[in-house]
Amino acid sequence: MAIYFREVSHHFQAFDEGPYQAIRDISFSLQEKGEFVGLIGQTGSGKSTLAQHMNALLFPSIGEVEIFGKKVTKKRNKKINYNAIRRDVGLVFQFPEYQLFEETVEKDIMFGPRNFGMDVEEAKKKAAEVIKLVGLDESYLSRNPLNLSGGEKKRVSIAGILAIDPKILVFDEPTSGLDPFGKHQLMALFEDIREKTGKSIVMITHDMDLVYAHCTRALVLKNGKLVFDGRTDELFKHSDLSDFYLDKPQTMQILEYIETKYGLTLDSMKKTPEEAAKAIEAAMKS
Questions:
Q1: Among 233, 268, 253, which residue's Cα sits nearest to residue 280?
Q2: Per-residue pLDDT averaged across 183-194, rounded?
Q3: Residue 273: left if φ>0, alpha if ψ -120 to 50, beta else—which one?
């Protein structure tokens, strides 16, 4: 396993109210290769706080996070290179503007590799390589990142993380603000990255359709506690997802409605509209 959470809690100091506990007693592990994990839960459940512990941007108030053999606790250890941890686990923030600050896309992508000791020419070569990986051509390298569209900014921020070649990728609400086509493009990009590199991906999202269609595993937070850790299909078989403040994916809702409305026998566990349409067609023929 690449990452271990061992009874991790984290609290923030709130104004005039004492400490606020964002996550509580969290324990789980994450593999380096082959996982696509949906980190989900209602707003304020602790998802972003948990993600920032995965690469030591935050330190546990209680407990321990082991990241590729390095044990992170409340007390900072001078023997640990925390920047190396942040290179191993690349975190892409919800708002790409947090990561884009240079005058050109090329310089933005080069920033991470240069910060970790790569020479200029090698960093330029890496920028040209990863810009293609995220579905943009090399003409973008000379453009000002702040003048790009929302979807393009997200791709550039992802390219900047890919340029440092992290072992695990963590995305915080990557599809927020995108139209359906933009979401489809971005998820296709993640699947392509996963297929080509084998890297495990963690995705924070409120979009249950994306979790159902793409993620193999779900971690569900509720009021700061981990209340579910398992296969995605097992999560959506849960009798009452409202226990977790979650909705069923739209394909499941539609199939269950049609089954009830028209008396058809349908398998509601279909992940895409195309699969749902075929299930309806087969039920109508039988």
A1: 268
A2: 87
A3: alpha
Tokens at 97, concatenated: 């503007």
Cα dihedral: 43, 181, 211, 237 (round 10): 110
Characterize the bridge pairing of strands 36-41 and 217-222: parallel
Q: Which of 125, 52, 134 is CA-nearest to residue 93?
A: 52
Helices (H) and strands (E) in the chain, counts: 10, 10
**Phi, psi at 79, each rounded to 5°:** -85, -10
State residue 197 phi and psi, 5-degree precision. Answer: -110, -25
In DSSP notation, 19-85 reads: EEEEEEEEEEEE-SBS-EEEEEESTTSSHHHHHHHTTTSS--SEEEEEETTEEE-SSPPTTS-HHHH
Interior angle at CA 280, CA 277 and CA 282, nearest 5: 110
**Contact indicator for 280, 271 with CB cutoff of 8 Å:** no
d(CA 199, CA 178): 24
3 state DSSP class of 244:
helix
Return the pLDDT at 151: 83
pTM of structure = 0.88
Q: Which residue is listed with tokens 């890297």?
A: 199
Rounded Cα distance between 108 and 51, Å, is: 23
Q: How confident is the model at residue 6 (pLDDT cuts 50, 70, 90)?
A: very high
Q: Looking at residue 239, what is its pLDDT?
A: 60
> How much is the pLDDT for 168?
96
Q: What are phi and psi of 116, to 5 degrees?
A: -100, 15
Residue 99's contacts (CB-CB under 8 Å, 6 or more residues apart) are: 92, 93, 108, 157, 160, 161
* pLDDT bucket at 183, cuts 50 / 70 / 90: confident
Neighbours of 174 (CB within 10 A): 27
